[in-house]
Automatic annotation (TrEMBL):
The lineage of its organism: Bacteria, Thermotogati, Thermotogota, Thermotogae, Petrotogales. Its main location: cytoplasm. GO terms for cellular component: cytosol. The gene is rimP. This is Ribosome maturation factor RimP. GO terms for biological process: ribosomal small subunit assembly; translation.
Length: 155
């Protein structure tokens, strides 16, 4: 399965590059009889539209059909990371500066492990976040203390 995923990743990366996109994640899951191939694409300059997903699908689907996947039938799903996308790198935090995010820390910061606030900046490998509820509280969270983070939908 690892070889299939590597081959699929190479082709997906090639198509993504042609379309000025990045591959966010590739998953192959399901039963022995039917698999789901999920390719999550990202646009570093904008959010991914349904049209972009459809165009990517039209480009990779013929290639997938030519492959002799050992699992036979499969469903192909092309999607975006979503509005509540995970934030996985320093670059993600820089890209989404000013956006609302939820941060879960490995170790407590000021007696807490969970923060919801606006990404202010990255400074010396620390994330500075302004708490949504008070807008006066700034928290500094070391990047390597972040267990997980994702954007939140701001209403």
């Amino acid at each position: 399965m690892k070889d299939i995923k590597n081959t699929l990743s190479e082709k997906a990366e090639e198509i993504a590059k042609e379309m000025n996109l990045e591959i966010f994640e590739i998953n192959i899951k399901g039963s022995k009889r039917r698999k789901t191939i999920e390719i999550i694409i990202d646009d570093l300059k904008d959010f991914v539209s349904i049209e972009t997903c459809a165009n990517f699908s039209r480009k990779i689907e013929p290639w997938c059909e030519e492959q002799d996947f050992p699992f036979g039938s499969y469903d192909l799903i092309i999607s975006s990371p979503g509005l509540d996308r995970p934030l996985r790198s320093k670059e993600d935090f820089i890209r989404f500066k000013g956006k609302l995010a939820k941060i879960i820390t490995k170790n407590k910061v000021e007696n807490r492990n969970s923060f919801t606030g606006y990404i202010k900046k990255i400074e010396n490998d620390e994330l500075i976040i302004e708490e949504k509820s008070s807008k006066k509280s700034l928290f500094k969270i070391e990047m390597d203390n972040i267990s997980r983070a994702n954007l939140e939908i701001d209403f």
